Amino acid sequence: MDIPLDVALERLTQRSLDPITGNRFHTHDQPAPTQNIQQRLAYHPTDDDDAVQKRYQTYSAYYDDLQDFYSQYDALHIPADQDAYTVFEGVEAGLVNQLNKDEN
User: Fold this and answer.
1) C-beta of residue 10 within 8 angstroms of C-beta of residue 84
2) pLDDT average, residue stretch 84-96
3) The domain that contains 65 carries what CATH number?
4) Would you say 13 and 25 are in contact if contact means Cβ atoms under 8 Å apart?
């Protein structure tokens, strides 16, 4: 998946978890429905700006090597800066198409 840093930061730093129900929320895409839930949300400690930027730098450093490696396997390439449902549909379509190839 290809994803720009600004999109990765938005997606990771704004996600949260309700420790009581286990439901996941996102400040922008899927906010908690009530103030009570918002107050109890937990954020993963490695989802702050600095940690995400560091992981992204590592991803970027190995990007070309990963592309070279997976290209020999006809790996699926998905631009991940699309909305989550579109990305999921791309992954799902790639899996279904691969299964159809394997059956023939």
Assistant:
1) no
2) 88
3) 3.40.50.300
4) no
Tens-digit pLDDT profile for residues 62-77: 999 988 998 888 788 8
Torsion of CA 6, 79, 92, 24, to 10 degrees: 0
Q: If we measure between CA atoms, which residue out of 48, 41, 42 comes closest to residue 12? A: 48
Q: Residues 31, 88, 49, 51: is their CA dihedral positive or negative?
A: positive
Tokens encoding 23: 């439901």
Q: Which residues pair with 17 in a beta bridge?
A: 24, 42
Tell me which residue range forms the domain holding 38. 5-103
pTM: 0.73
Number of domains in the chain: 1
